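Structural prep section.
Before we set up the soaks we want a predicted structure of the protein with magnesium ion in place, mainly to decide which crystallisation condition to try first. Input record follows.
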Amino acid sequence: MKIFCIGRNYVAHAAELNNKVPDNPIIFMKPPTALLKNNDDFYHPDFSNNIHYECELVVKIKKSGKAVDPEFAHLYYDEIGLGIDFTARDLQEELKSKGLPWEIAKGFDNSAVISTFLPIDQLPSPIEFSLYKNGDIVQKGTSENMIFNIDSLIVNISKYFTLQQGDLIYTGTPAGVGKVEIGDILEGFVRDEKMFSCRVR
Ligand code: MG
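Run finished without errors. Recording the tokens verbatim:
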């Protein structure tokens, strides 16, 4: 399986990191070894002093597709989860400033928290989600604020990569990203439903 992630898919988040709003989706990938499931603890890696949480809706692909036509994009998914795209912001900024690839800042082990999945037909649209850190809300998002919606992401990604059953798409984070410290507890919600809990150790 493959893990696709989308950068700068919410205007307010692009602005908070002083990035331009993109003309096309910014696509990057994490390896399957990045997944952190079952509410497991996240062990803070020692190669970074600035690990950020980015809470994101995650789409699970249900069948293979290549160069998917926009009118059929909705047929390629029927489940939505919630996750965190952990980012070593210090490494990412350093590598970006040198024009170098920043895989290590995004794809390291356990950098992709993933919840269980909900059938999309049981979710009211737009899909509202939130992240709490130590009991305080730090991120609040809604699918209607995505610059590129889910169908558009599927069309764009499948131009370059064949989608396969079980692939995941982390659809980008709203504003409010921030640093985690050892001892923090991160809890993600879709509407009122708790999707995951993750302790930083
Ligand atoms: Mg992200």
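Observations: The CA atoms of residues 101 and 134 lie 33 Å apart.
Flagged for discussion at group meeting.
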